[in-house]
Fold:
Amino acid sequence: MPVTEKKKVILSGIQPTGVFTLGNYLGAVKNWAGLQDEFQCAYMIADLHAITVRQEPAELRKRTLDAFALLLAAGIDPQKSLTFIQSHVDLHAKLSWVLSCFTQFGEMSRMTQFKDKSQKHPDNVNVGLFTYPVLMAADILLYQADFVPVGADQKQHLEVTRDIAARFNGIYGDVFTIPEPYIPKAGARVMSLQDPTKKMSKSDTNPNGYITILDTKEQIINKCKRAVTDSDREVVYREGKDGINNLLNIYSSITGKTIPECEREFEGKGYGEFKTAVGETVADELRPIRENFARLRADTAYLKECYTAGAQMAYRAGRRTVEKVYKKVGFLLP
Ligand code: ATP
Ligand code: LTN
Structure:
């Protein structure tokens, strides 16, 4: 009889800090649906992470439900994948505490996301923002994930997760699987349309900087037309042409064409024509998600059924890891 191989485990998460942007989609969520058959996947809404920046409570609740519906709208099937909300599974917080005692202050100080976000919110540089990557490590290690599909901005957090896991394993034996990042070749870093030296972010205060996956065709085309570029005329990928490079990346990531193929397609054409083509391509790609979302979001009873079942299954999947960790570090079991 053939030995059936156990599927490798994938885990990823997204914060309910706003409607997902084209960056979240191309860098992460788009790939998640396609991994569901080959892997045992777990996808969660990272609401614990979201409160590292001050959130209005009613708004956070609404955004969490929106984000959950968006995952399903983007093709995540709760029958195939563990689909849940982070705060519903208390194991994340428990493991995070233990891991924080195996993480060095200096390691956290080097995280660029911490530096960026504390600059952005100088009035609220809280300890949660500082230890954010430890909680992320707990999310991943709890489920013994083999791969973590994320955008390029999360690479540093994954490296630190690997370091924490290896350190713990070095002391206590093989407790954690060491996870690998799974970063897409194209679309891993979509930049802001208004400042193409910064990543596109859903918590940007200027909505022209990002395209959300629920924007209408008209809004998308308008934002692309207004995208900051440069003063020459050639649609070519070149150092210093950050705005055009970004639009080429987006176009290439959606169409699957290589950058030189895209350049050839727009040879001799102006920026206006190129920007409209990018806008139309993006809008066509996102339309089905917007339609699915409208249908799913209206059915809150179904969403609740999915996230309740998801949390129970996630709990069962993660429980053994916490038990093992508690035993290893020497807690007297109740
Ligand atoms: P916030 O603006 O609140 O910090 P965010 O838009 O950066 O949020 P996250 O929830 O932190 O989004 O990230 C969800 C996923 O989307 C992660 O895997 C992250 O790597 C990916 N991602 C975020 N922004 C981009 C981007 N501009 N390009 C590619 N991938 C991205
Ligand atoms: N920090 C992530 C969101 C996130 C995540 C995770 C991603 C929270 N926990 C676990 C992968 C695995 C971000 O994208 N900013």
Q: What stands out?
A: The CA atoms of residues 122 and 179 lie 33 Å apart. The beta strands are 9-14, 40-45, 82-85, 147-149, 180-182. The chain is about 55% helix and 5% strand. The first helix runs from residue 22 to 34.
